[in-house]
Every structure is written in C-alpha cells, then in structure tokens.
Design a protein that fits this description.
Layout (H helix, E strand, L loop, with lengths): L6 E5 L4 H12 L3 E6 L14 E4 L5 H8 L4 E4 L11 H22 L3 E5 L27 H19 L4 E6 L1 E3 L8 H10 L5 E2 L3 E6 H14 L5 E4 L2 E4 H12 L6 E2 L5 H15 L7 H6 L3 E2 L4 H7 L6 H14 L5
Parallel strand pairs: 1-2, 1-4, 2-3, 4-5, 5-6, 6-10, 7-9, 8-12, 9-13
Antiparallel strand pairs: 9-11
C-alpha cells in the first residue's frame, strides 16, 4: 500500500481533472510533482505546494526526468477535445502520449500507476441498464475521434498491465465542478445554459459526477485498486432536460421546454462544423455529438464502490460548485 509521504507524479495537473487529482494527492499526504509544459497556464496550481517539472508527453526525456524519485504515477493528461479541424490529431496525440508514458513508467520501475481513461471506452447494455466495466469497446465501435483515441490508449494500457506494469485504470464519467478553466465541453454547456443560450434540448442523458469525487477515486484506485482492472468513477445518471432545468433553477432562469428531434439537427451540425473548419473554433453542435446523444450515457460505479470504497456525492452539489466558480471567475457575465 502506498505511504503518505511517497512522491507521486501527476500529469495533466494544470487542467480540470488533473488539478483536482493533485489537490487530492496533497490532501492525502503525498508529496506531489506535476508535469507541465512551459507554456501551460498555472492558475489551477496557484497556492499548491507542488514541485513543477517542465516537460511534455511527447518528450520522453522530460518524462524520465520527472519520474526520477517517484514511486507512483497518476497519468491524467490527455487531449480532451470532441472536435478538431483534423480529428486524427486527437487520436495521434492520445496514442503517442500514452505510448511514451507507458515506456517511461516501465523504465522507472514504479510501484504503482493509475491511468485516467474514460467511460467513452465502454459500450452499452442492449436492455438499457447502466453500463459497467464489462463492456469495453473496440476502436471501430467508438463514435468520434476522442472516443476512438481513448479506446486505443486504454488497449495499450491493458497490454502494459498484461506485460507486468503495475497499472490500474479508472474511467471517469462526466466531471463537473470548480476550476474548469477551459472550460470542458460539459462546462461549456453549463455556462451556455446559465446565460440563457440553450433554448432547447434533445432527449438524452449522461452520468454527472463532482470533479473532486473523481479525484478522490484516483487516490482510492492508487491505494486499493487491483492491477489491470478498470473502475468507473461516476456519479448520478441525469437526463439532459433535468440538468438544464436544475441549472435554470440555480440561476433564476426559466428552463428550456422545447424537445428537439435529433434527425433535423444533422444538417445544422454539418453547417456549424464547416464554420468551425473556417474559424478554428469548436462548434457547439457536431454530428458526432448527435450520434452520441442517441444513447443515454448512464453508468454504474458499483465496482468502485464495492472494491475501492468510492462514495460520490449527489450530482447537484457538483452543479452548484461549478456555477459558483464560473460566476466568481466572470464566465457568467
């Protein structure tokens, strides 16, 4: 079992989930080193007693240097975009970054590693039950470049575990909460809904979880997870309509009531994607997003609860914390 004063390297710590993981590791008594590019914004690291190692996932030498003296690795970093002008760029980044990290971790002789995957790598039960860890997708089954990239990366981690790397996989669902600087695609929905820019919805659902619970799940996986196993770190299954209604109630707006069919939205999505190709700005609506919305993306965290002691809070607390942070930081106008 990892000891509290062990040194742990956290990748992706300048981002949303990675910053929460770094905070959780510090709170758990670990010494924390973070890998950060020289150009990465450090807002999420302000006030944290962490050591910063300059480097990049594409630079094997910087990873080797960052892992020196570390007993554990929490690999959170990823290219988290649901759209790009060149979708294959997302796949390349997440595949090569994972290959580099796994090689460096193997060479470092780590005691333990936690790899942050995603529920995007999992399929769905035919009878509509919430998905679980027994439904891994193949790359050709994944919708969109991001999901495909995470499937490819997770299979690489599976192979490394089979070859002896002491790695545990965690699959967060959809995190929400404070310090979503970018913001993430879900954070964008929260901001747009809170400012009255989402007048309608489609009939879909997702599993929402407080980002700090996801972070706590990483530390539980580090200490209690079984090598080579995957654990869903989810929260609460919520329809998109309920999410938008709850946001409206929290900010004092009327909730959207117009339920749009997906089919007629595909031409609009094609237009917004074409505009995105021209401007370089991620479109709010894409064809891949509509395809994903055809499923209610509900997930069960029963395995993590039973084996790790994972205990997420109600999703609405994450929504409240997200809105409070977005408001304080000026995202809501």
């Amino acid at each position: 079992m990892p000891e509290g004063r062990d040194l742990v390297l956290v990748t992706g710590a300048t981002g949303f989930v990675g910053a929460a993981v770094a905070r959780a590791a510090l709170a758990d008594g670990f010494r924390v080193r973070v890998l950060a590019r020289p150009t990465s914004p450090r807002r999420n690291l302000e006030g944290l007693e962490v050591e910063v190692a300059l480097g990049d996932l594409s630079d094997a030498g910087s990873l080797t240097a960052a892992l020196a003296g570390c007993r554990h690795l929490l690999h959170v970093a990823a290219d988290y975009r649901l759209w790009a002008r060149d979708p294959e760029e997302i796949v390349r980044n997440n595949r090569t970054g994972t290959e580099t990290v796994l090689a460096a971790a193997q060479a470092a002789g780590l005691e333990r590693m936690v790899y942050t995957s995603s529920v995007a790598t999992l399929g769905f039960h035919a009878d509509g039950r919430p998905s679980d860890e027994t439904l891994p997708l193949g790359p050709d089954e994944a919708i969109g470049a991001y999901k495909r990239s995470k499937v490819i990366a997770e299979r690489l981690v599976d192979q490394a575990a089979s070859a002896g790397l002491p790695v545990v996989i965690v699959n967060p669902s959809t995190p929400i909460g404070p310090r979503d600087i970018k913001p993430t695609p879900t954070g964008r929905i929260i901001v747009e809904a809170a400012t009255g820019k989402i007048p309608a919805f489609v009939d879909t659902g997702l599993n929402l979880v407080h980002v700090d619970d996801v972070a706590a799940g990483h530390l539980l996986a580090l200490k209690r997870g079984r090598i080579g196993e995957r654990y869903i770190l989810g929260g609460e299954d919520v329809s998109l309509r309920r999410m938008l209604t709850d946001i409206a109630a929290l900010v004092g707006r009327k909730p959207p009531t117009l339920n749009l069919p997906r089919g007629p939205l595909y031409p609009l999505a094609a237009i917004t994607e074409a505009i995105g190709q021209f401007t370089g700005k991620e479109p709010m609506l894409t064809r891949d997003a509509l395809k994903m919305a055809s499923h209610r993306m509900f997930f069960s965290s029963a395995k993590a609860r039973q084996e790790l002691g994972y205990a997420p809070r109600p999703y609405r607390q994450g929504l409240e914390d997200a809105l409070a942070w977005f408001r304080a930081e000026g995202y809501l106008g």
